[in-house]
Amino acid sequence: MHLKGLFRSAWLMIGLLPVAPVAAQQATVPMAAIPAAAQASLSDGYVLGPGDVIELSVMGRDDYRARLQLQTDGVIELPLIGNVVAANKTVLQLKEEVRNRLKSGGYFANPIVNVTIATYASRYVVVLGEVASPGIVPIDRAYRISEILARVGGAKDNGGNMLTITRASGEEIRLNVKDIATGGGDKDPLVNAGDKIFLAEAATFYVYGQVNAPGNYKIEPGMTLRMAIARSGGLTTMGSEKRAKVTRDGREVRVGLDDVITDKDVIVVGQKFF
Predict the structure, then answer these.
(1) Residue 90 and residue 43: Cα distance in Å, rounded?
(2) Domains, the chain, ranges and CATH?
(3) What is the C-alpha to C-alpha distance for residues 247 and 259, in angstroms, rounded to an integer?
């Protein structure tokens, strides 16, 4: 190792050398920002990448402790053993490599190496929209979209029926939430690092007038005007299906009882004539 590298390692060991910043576009995820359920699911199987910050130590040796950030080349520099390629290795693999090099170099007889991840930055998906806990979700293995939804607490009651995955390449995939929950294969695809997952708010309709439960309701797939009236508690004794009017985009439109309603439709059910 060069003399400069030796000095750098020494400063890292005593915690006086700051971790070098990664490129501005890389997101960092402190452990405190990750929901407890997501933290619990992250294990030694996480694959390290540029930008991740790790804490590495040898048990029982306070003089061998460092906080390091993987740079763009994926290399970290450790005391005694020099450069180690950490990128594309799991935490377990990195532990084993450092242990073997310390042992084979004669530095320690049987070292127990600990590696923990302080900041996740390289492999994650972003989940936004009408889910219980939107945010950044680190991925430590191949996850299906249903698993990611489970990790963020699932859809809210006002979540829509369609979910969108936007790949890093710009490709968009639209999926039906019900199909995700019950299907497999292409209905519940694997996510990739860098994916953005968005669940829009559900389409709704408003209804008032001669119905038993006026209000704002979620539109189910294929919902007709007749079904919308039924969803709002049905007609009062004074109500008439024939006198139901629909306002769409600020103007009244002709909609039959078996025609499908659309987002933000306003339904007014009038009285019947005696």
Answers:
(1) 9
(2) 3-120 (3.30.1950.10), 124-201 (3.10.560.10), 204-271 (3.10.560.10)
(3) 14
Beta strands in the chain (DSSP E): 29-30, 53-58, 61-69, 75-78, 82-85, 113-120, 124-129, 135-138, 159-166, 172-176, 196-201, 204-209, 215-218, 239-248, 251-253, 265-271
| C-alpha distances out from residue 239 to 178, 205, 268, 274, Å | 34, 19, 10, 11
Tokens of 230: 């039924």
Reference 197, options 247, 124, 246, 265; nearest CA is 124
For residue range 66-78, what is the model confidence (pLDDT) as tens digits? 999 998 899 999 9
Q: What's the predicted TM-score (pTM) here?
A: 0.62
At 129 the pLDDT is 97
pLDDT digits over 70-117, tens only?
A: 988 999 999 999 999 999 998 999 999 999 999 999 999 999 999 998
Contact 48, 54 (CB under 8 A): yes
